[in-house]
């Protein structure tokens, strides 16, 4: 049924970069055989899942939305890919994304535009916009994403679905093509909170192959999603976000969600997190700095594209030609910004300063979570914007992640759940931020208030 749905709508939506129906049917048959052989499979066995094209897959191409990886077949599966297969999920295809996950609209993909199923003239969010669009368009009930600076929560918010950024280190980065390694966090998309929790539990947990993986049990997220109550919890509204810069429709739905929390028995208090407003500029130093280092591996020798290798040119010339042709404008912008920020003489002024801001954001969270169980805000300042509107304005694009980025810098858990439609008829997301390893709390509150 999902393959039929993809055949019917994906020409218009453009969520998938790769779907191979024969492979999908073979995976489904293999799950049936395992079940028939008496294997104990998890609750998601046989369920189709759309997989962001940033996770390596041995049986499907993996491009990270970049021309530089066109045609690359990974020799190994990401840990999360392995875990999906082990649990019997059927990987229905690889989804479109901003190149190397840099963007908030999926317009930075080197391959195609993905459209928001609610209004095909609008963006599905990004960078995991293929995944969010696939779930919102009923092309798959579940999807994977990665959140480095909002790339799960923002696309979930603007397509009216649930998206969770687990605690950093709670889900493995092994086999996830690196963007900014101190921030990259894989997580689930689903159409309701309980489904997201089931996928979260399936995909997460300690991985010795990821040096920053946390060696602790996965928080009890499924139990929390089933519990779905807020009685006795204290919810903090971030003062710095509440009044600043959100569209009217977003602010109205957010205010209603806070009132709903109160009516369900939560105590609501205002909390000041004075450094949150500096998180976005700090992120745009830290993330590009890590990019300039991580993307050095695309040297035309090891993977994918190679340009101008005709026997007359040096390795350096081939590398330069390949990187000039293989990387898009946003990726080049980040490599240059990061190289500059890390260069001797500027390191202390930019990178060092940004890391200090990161510490201050952490401290704001620590202080807040001494007083409250969770913090809430709108996920994004606006509903889905029109395709093309911000494509030539990086600053406007970056602002889509104003309210999601603090939790990336601090590495704590945060979920986006639908909280109704704005006056323009487009979905609004409520962000619930919980402490490090308090992922279950985000699910508990999210399940109580999702609409
Ligand atoms: N939009 C942000 C960026 O462009 C976040 C991307 C992400 O989380 N992968 O960096």
UniProtKB/TrEMBL annotation:
Residues 1-440 form the Amidase domain. It comes from the Bacteria. Its EC number is 6.3.5.7. Keywords: ATP-binding, Ligase, Nucleotide-binding, Protein biosynthesis, Transferase. GO terms for biological process: translation. NCBIfam families: gatA (TIGR00132). This is Glutamyl-tRNA(Gln) amidotransferase subunit A. It comes from Actinomadura rayongensis. The gene is gatA.
């Amino acid at each position: 049924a999902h393959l039929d749905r993809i055949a019917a709508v994906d020409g218009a939506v453009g969520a998938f970069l790769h779907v191979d129906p024969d492979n999908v049917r073979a995976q489904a048959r293999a799950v049936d055989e395992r079940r028939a052989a008496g294997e104990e499979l998890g609750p998601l066995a046989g369920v189709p899942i759309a997989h962001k094209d940033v996770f390596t897959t041995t049986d499907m191409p993996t491009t990270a939305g970049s021309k530089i990886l066109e045609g690359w077949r990974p020799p190994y599966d990401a840990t999360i890919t392995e875990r999906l297969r082990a649990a019997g999920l059927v990987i229905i295809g690889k989804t479109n994304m901003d190149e190397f996950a840099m963007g908030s609209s999926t317009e930075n993909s080197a391959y195609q535009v993905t459209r928001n199923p609610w209004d095909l003239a609008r963006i599905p969010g990004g960078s995991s916009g293929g995944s969010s669009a696939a779930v919102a368009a009923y092309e798959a009930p579940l999807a994977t994403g990665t959140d480095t600076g909002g790339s799960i929560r923002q696309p979930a918010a603007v397509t009216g679905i649930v998206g969770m950024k687990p605690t950093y280190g709670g889900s493995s980065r092994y086999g996830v093509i690196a963007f900014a390694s101190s921030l990259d966090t894989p997580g689930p998309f689903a159409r309701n909170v309980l489904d997201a929790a089931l996928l979260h539990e399936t995909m997460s947990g300690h991985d010795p192959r990821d040096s920053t993986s946390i060696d602790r049990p996965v928080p009890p997220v499924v139990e929390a999603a089933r519990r779905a109550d807020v009685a006795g919890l204290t919810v903090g509204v971030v003062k710095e976000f509440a009044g600043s810069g959100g569209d009217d429709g977003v602010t109205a739905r957010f205010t209603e969600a806070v009132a709903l929390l109160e009516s369900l028995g939560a105590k609501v208090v205002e909390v000041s997190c004075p450094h949150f407003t500096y998180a976005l500029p700090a992120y745009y130093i830290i993330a590009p700095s890590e990019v300039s280092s991580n993307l050095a591996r695309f040297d035309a020798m090891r993977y994918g594209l190679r340009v101008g290798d005709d026997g007359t040119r040096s390795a350096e010339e081939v590398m330069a030609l390949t990187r000039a042709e293989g990387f898009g404008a946003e990726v080049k912008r980040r490599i240059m910004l990061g190289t500059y920020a890390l260069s001797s003489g500027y390191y202390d002024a930019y990178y060092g300063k940004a890391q200090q801001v990161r510490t201050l954001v952490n401290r704001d969270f620590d202080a807040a979570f001494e007083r409250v169980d969770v913090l809430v805000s709108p996920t994004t300042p606006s509903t889905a914007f029109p395709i093309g509107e911000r494509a030539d304005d990086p600053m406007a694009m970056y602002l889509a992640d104003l309210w999601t980025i603090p939790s990336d810098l601090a590495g704590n858990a945060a979920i986006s759940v639908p909280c109704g439609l704005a006056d323009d008829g487009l979905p609004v997301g409520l962000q619930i931020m919980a402490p490090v390893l308090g992922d279950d709390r985000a699910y508990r509150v999210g399940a109580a208030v999702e609409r």
